[in-house]
Amino acid sequence: MLQRQPFEYMVKYTQQKSWIDGRGNFIAFAFFLGGISGGLFMAAAYFNSILGMFIAVCISALMGFSYMMHLGQPTQFWRMLFKPKTSWISRGFIFIFLYAGFAIIAIILAQWFPSATTAIAVFKILGGVFAFAQSIYTGFAVSYVSAIKLWNSAILPILFVVCGFSGGLAILLGISMGGDQVAAIENITRITLIAFAVILIVYLWNTTYSSTVAKDAVARLLGGNIAAIFWIGVVVLGVVIPLTISIVTYFTDTSSTALIITAVVTEILGGLSLRYVILKGGIYIPLTSGE
Amino acid sequence: MARWGMVIDLHRCIGCYSCVVACRQEHFVPRGIYFNRVLVTEKGKFPTVEKIIIPAQCNHCKEAACVKVCPTGASTQREDGLVLVDEKKCVGCGYCVVACPYQQRTRFEDPKLEYFPGQGFTPYELLGKQLYAYRPGTALKCTFCVERIDAGIKKGLKPGVDRDATPACAIICPTQTRTFGDLDDPMSEISQMITYKKALPLHPEFDTEPSIYYLRM
Fold first, then answer.
1. Which CATH number fits the domain that encloses residue B137?
2. Structure pTM?
3. Domains of chain A, residue spans
4. CATH top class, domain A14-284
5. Residue A10 near chain B (CB below 8 Å)
6. Domain tally, chain B
7. Of B40, B101, B138, the CB nearest to A147
8. Which residues have C-beta within 8 Å of that of residue A212, sequence separation ≥ 6?
9. Cα B59 off chain centre by
10. Is B127 on the interface with A (CB under 8 A)?
């Protein structure tokens, strides 16, 4: 049972609120944007889409803005560079700057110096490495919290990065419509969506083994007050609809614009829903067993 | 070097909330923020029910998760074990609030929140804003009354023995539930309590090595 009275705080199951309620919504949004930005850049770099890389950097900027909205003292943000030794937020901050820097150089070279193929490749790779780092660090930051068993899982960073990659592929698919790479992008998207679904199931199933609190958290996710967002947002919008569209286009060999746009939008909403339900579902181990 | 800690005897605690009030008075704690809580629960089923009252606050852990996750170095640990927040460096990311396994930190959101909404700030609250001008958006938590400890030591007083050098929650308790002292001194009262009366910290499996121990949990 979740906390009811103030004196039951941390005696009964207590939901974390700092990273989801009020201003905390911005951090859920920032985690989501970071994931798809990293995923989009990796996909765009692979498929040589300058527009895709540019949109990825723009999404990263939006992510930075969302982080600033979350911070209590945003003017002090520069101090977050100083503790990468132990803090995942500090490491992530550095990853974001490096990713943005290398990505912008790669875009400039690709757009205005297309003959510098080696340099473009180098900066794409560097940008891709830190895009991956940006995508995965939020999973590590969340999974570091040992008292919230729903989060304290080695699978969570992988889940976040795969979700981010599938969202990025969806955006790349949307901007590549009518191009000759659509089929290839669709193929990778299919595989990524299936991988995402499998990892999500494994993550939830495995989490129920870690403690009774974790089992309760998963039960809330699947049948409690956030079940609607999980089933509709994450499962239906994030997996079922885009995967169905992907399978239909595979077997019918057609690429309808309306279907692709539907798949893009639903995948993006699915990614956002995933971050939201994971953060909302975080419940602390009670200080003492009161039940 | 001393390492400050506390032992709380749960059989002595009567749930009077004096420690909560004393802490709020001592630090002019804003409304909605708690440095010190008294948690109440029941164990067992009727007719064999036991009421359990647990005073809880920042444990000033030796391996504090909040210090590790802080991206700016605002959360630090002194040599004497006190975990403190430098609000000038705190960026208000809330990672320490989330990472603390004992959930004893809060981010101070609204400086305009009055104790009596709609009636303006009381003289007490206005005085508090001068003496303890907490920075909005930063993390707040129990400090083990660091200013009392530091001032007391300068005057040659002994924390845990002399009232003026001991945390307010420990000296106000009418049943002497809380014992404050040096964990690194094997002859101190709290070290003796931990060793011979088997005082235990909350959730040692978190591996944070708390400095607050509980008797008869």
1. 3.30.70.20
2. 0.90
3. 14-284
4. mainly alpha
5. yes
6. 1
7. B101
8. none
9. 7
10. no
